[in-house]
Amino acid sequence: MRVLGIDPGLTRCGLGVVDGTPGRPPTMVAVGVTRTPATLETARRLVQIEEAVEAWVREHRPDAVAVERVFAQHNVPTVMGTAQAAGIAMLVAARHGLPVALHTPSEVKASITGSGRAGKDQVGAMVTRILRLTAAPKPADAADALALAICHVWRGGATARVDAALQAAAVASARQRRAFTQARPSRGAS
């Protein structure tokens, strides 16, 4: 499975592509950061992010996209920019028919380091170790994007199987209800 991990941000948006399957060490395909100038109006910055994510999807052809789930912060302008960038990432993935998974920062940290409270340095060190790199990707947004992709490879397969099982159970339940309803005699029949 090839996963494009996206650490959304209006100023810096981390992008990382990983190939892997659960139970095997993943490999890095590409990593980078797209930057937008703070002096540019927000709409133009979002266009630049969209163009960058679009280019990465076309070049690397991922099977899935993993985006960091935006969580509430006290800094509203930062959260707004992050949410807008995340929306752009999801839009590009949807345009290409790719499944999108949202992972919380603590979920990613726990998956990569074993602790949901790990610091950025710990995440970078573990990404370096897991992918057998010679140095941690810089800036931290790049390492975070790779961590998202790794997390999805490791957890995404299980999540997809659970979702498929739930969907199959819902379909089976609906069939049983229809069969029961059709087999029941109507109340007015003698």
Automatic annotation (TrEMBL):
<feature type="binding site">
    <location>
        <position position="7"/>
    </location>
    <ligand>
        <name>Mg(2+) 1</name>
    </ligand>
</feature>
<keyword id="KW-0238">DNA-binding</keyword>
<comment type="subunit">
    <text>Homodimer which binds Holliday junction (HJ) DNA. The HJ becomes 2-fold symmetrical on binding to RuvC with unstacked arms; it has a different conformation from HJ DNA in complex with RuvA. In the full resolvosome a probable DNA-RuvA(4)-RuvB(12)-RuvC(2) complex forms which resolves the HJ.</text>
</comment>
<keyword id="KW-0234">DNA repair</keyword>
<dbReference type="InterPro" id="IPR002176">
    <property type="entry name" value="X-over_junc_endoDNase_RuvC"/>
</dbReference>
<keyword id="KW-0233">DNA recombination</keyword>
<dbReference type="InterPro" id="IPR020563">
    <property type="entry name" value="X-over_junc_endoDNase_Mg_BS"/>
</dbReference>
<comment type="function">
    <text>The RuvA-RuvB-RuvC complex processes Holliday junction (HJ) DNA during genetic recombination and DNA repair. Endonuclease that resolves HJ intermediates. Cleaves cruciform DNA by making single-stranded nicks across the HJ at symmetrical positions within the homologous arms, yielding a 5'-phosphate and a 3'-hydroxyl group; requires a central core of homology in the junction. The consensus cleavage sequence is 5'-(A/T)TT(C/G)-3'. Cleavage occurs on the 3'-side of the TT dinucleotide at the point of strand exchange.</text>
</comment>
<feature type="binding site">
    <location>
        <position position="141"/>
    </location>
    <ligand>
        <name>Mg(2+) 1</name>
    </ligand>
</feature>
<keyword id="KW-0378">Hydrolase</keyword>
<feature type="active site">
    <location>
        <position position="68"/>
    </location>
</feature>
<dbReference type="Pfam" id="PF02075">
    <property type="entry name" value="RuvC"/>
</dbReference>
<feature type="active site">
    <location>
        <position position="141"/>
    </location>
</feature>
<dbReference type="InterPro" id="IPR036397">
    <property type="entry name" value="RNaseH_sf"/>
</dbReference>
<feature type="active site">
    <location>
        <position position="7"/>
    </location>
</feature>
<keyword id="KW-0963">Cytoplasm</keyword>
<keyword id="KW-0540">Nuclease</keyword>
<keyword id="KW-0227">DNA damage</keyword>
<comment type="similarity">
    <text>Belongs to the RuvC family.</text>
</comment>
<keyword id="KW-0460">Magnesium</keyword>
<feature type="binding site">
    <location>
        <position position="68"/>
    </location>
    <ligand>
        <name>Mg(2+) 2</name>
    </ligand>
</feature>
<dbReference type="InterPro" id="IPR012337">
    <property type="entry name" value="RNaseH-like_sf"/>
</dbReference>
<dbReference type="GO" id="GO:0016787">
    <property type="term" value="F:hydrolase activity"/>
</dbReference>
<protein>
    <recommendedName>
        <fullName>Crossover junction endodeoxyribonuclease RuvC</fullName>
        <ecNumber>3.1.21.10</ecNumber>
    </recommendedName>
</protein>
<keyword id="KW-0255">Endonuclease</keyword>
<keyword id="KW-0479">Metal-binding</keyword>
